[in-house]
# Entry
Amino acid sequence: MIIKKNLLITATLFFASSAMAGEFSLGAGAVFNESPYKGYNENTTAVPLISYEGDNFYVRQTTAGWAFWKDSKNELSLTASWMPLHFDPDDNDDHAMKQLDERKASVFVGGAYYRHESWGSLKFGVAGDAMDESGGVVGEITYFHPIRMERLTLIPAVGVFYYDESFNDYYYGVSGKESRHSGLNEYSAGDSWNPYVALTAKYQLTQNLFLNASAAYTVLPDDVKNSSMVDRDDSFVLMTGVSWRF
# Structure
């Protein structure tokens, strides 16, 4: 199973733009995911929804950060994020894919900068694989603009992720040994830019109870979709859930 990072980014963007200092929320949700890998059916998975905003320290879903420079328009943070992207051949339905090696999830450590203006917000992020599973580096440029109504907040977003050659080759490459065992074509992936669009919504049912929803659509670049492990041109993820603000 894969939970794509773009859904977790939409949740992160929501928490970063809507939470007040000292606010903590906890909840549960379900993720519907279309995996780019062959042999995975569309699936739904339960996930926790976690948010905490302190004066400097924060937790935004799978990302923890320390904002060492912060004012009304700027935030510069050191970050540590759990990257849930992984491949488990034992969970796959395709015989050839079952012969491949496991690709593991990892922790990425880096930094993020937010710039908030009246016309919206920009996020720039970069991080490297701290556990050296892929040895890769990822980057992100995102624009998002919260639209706040009486009980409903909508956040449309558009952006692009950068994944370097090491990251892509670990998760989408097929070695010569794997090719001989599986019959899949050998493949080496290069770096890539992955554009995406997303929409996040939060509706306040009571003073403390909220409904949450996030949807994200990503276009897979040639260096991903040309892999013999992949049988899609795009990826879609939808999350719904409820959270309680303490």
